[in-house]
């Protein structure tokens, strides 16, 4: 299976980057063809410009500014997000990726006023997230990233398929032991993906 792995952490020598590298390695070990998309390393432009917004519904012209990313998404059969959670949301670069790449005609189409998915070719979805907050604080805040992955993205891909959701909470108080244990959890999950 061809798996697109989206990564959105700007620091090279970070735990987030270690999670990304381990995700890629474990997926390859499982026999998947992996397309690693490190949004910062690729200098992805997350801002939806005025021009992009005006052309938003004009498929296929709307895809021109992000054509290579659209092609990668269309080839994917699996999708894995590896990202930190900042202020109970995704980093702006990842949010911008969704705004600029998951376009009408690419990820959905409006048919008689109803949204129809164009991502049914993606058979598996996973997320590997790190939170500064504790699980309780994330719960009290409504845990928007978890809902986006398990509800919004899942619905756009296939609402009947299970989602692998892995989160290391309380990174502000993590230890070598908690980081190692979570890395092992990610390894196991990606080798079974």
Order of helices and strands: EHEHHEHEEEHHEH
How far the N terminus sits from the C terminus, by CA atoms, comes to 10 Å
Radius of gyration: 17 Å
Residues in helices, as a percent range = 25-40%
Largest sheet, spatial ordering of strands: 2-1-3-6-7
Shape: globular
What does this protein structure show overall?
This protein is of the alpha/beta class and about 190 residues long. The protein is about 40% helix and about 20% strand. It contains seven helices and seven strands, in the order βαβααβαβββααβα. It has helices at about 15-30, 50-55, 65-75, 90-100, 135-140, 145-155, 175-190, and strands at about 1-5, 35-40, 80-85, 110, 115, 125-130, 165-170. The strands form two sheets. The protein has a five-stranded parallel β-sheet with strand order 2-1-3-6-7, with helices on both faces. A hairpin with a 2-residue loop joins β4 (about 110) and β5. α1 runs parallel beside α7. The longest helix has 16 residues, at about 175-190.
Write the layout of secondary structure elements.
Layout: E1 2-7, H1 15-29, E2 33-38, H2 50-54, H3 67-75, E3 78-85, H4 92-101, E4 108-111, E5 114-117, E6 124-131, H5 135-140, H6 144-157, E7 163-168, H7 176-191
Parallel strand pairs: 1-2, 1-3, 3-6, 6-7
Antiparallel strand pairs: 4-5
List keywords for this structure.
two-stranded antiparallel sheet; five-stranded parallel β-sheet; 193 residues; 39% helix; alpha/beta; 7 helices
């Amino acid at each position: 299976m061809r798996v697109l792995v989206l990564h959105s952490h700007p620091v090279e020598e970070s735990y987030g980057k270690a999670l990304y590298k381990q995700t890629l390695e474990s997926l390859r070990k499982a026999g998947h063809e992996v397309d690693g998309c490190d949004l910062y390393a690729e200098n992805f432009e997350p801002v939806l410009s005025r021009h992009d917004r005006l052309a938003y519904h004009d498929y296929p012209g709307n895809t021109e500014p992000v054509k290579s990313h659209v092609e990668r998404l269309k080839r994917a059969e699996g999708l894995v997000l590896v990202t930190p959670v900042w202020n109970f949301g995704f980093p702006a670069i990842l949010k911008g990726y969704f705004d600029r790449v998951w376009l009408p005609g690419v990820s959905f189409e409006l048919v008689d006023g109803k949204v129809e998915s164009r991502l049914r070719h993606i058979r598996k979805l996973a997320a590997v997230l790190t939170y500064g907050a504790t699980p309780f604080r994330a719960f009290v805040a409504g845990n928007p990233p978890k809902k986006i992955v398990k509800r919004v993205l899942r619905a756009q891909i296939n609402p009947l398929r299970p989602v692998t959701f892995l989160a290391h909470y309380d990174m502000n108080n993590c230890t070598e032991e908690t980081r190692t244990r979570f890395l092992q959890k990610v390894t196991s999950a990606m080798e079974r993906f």
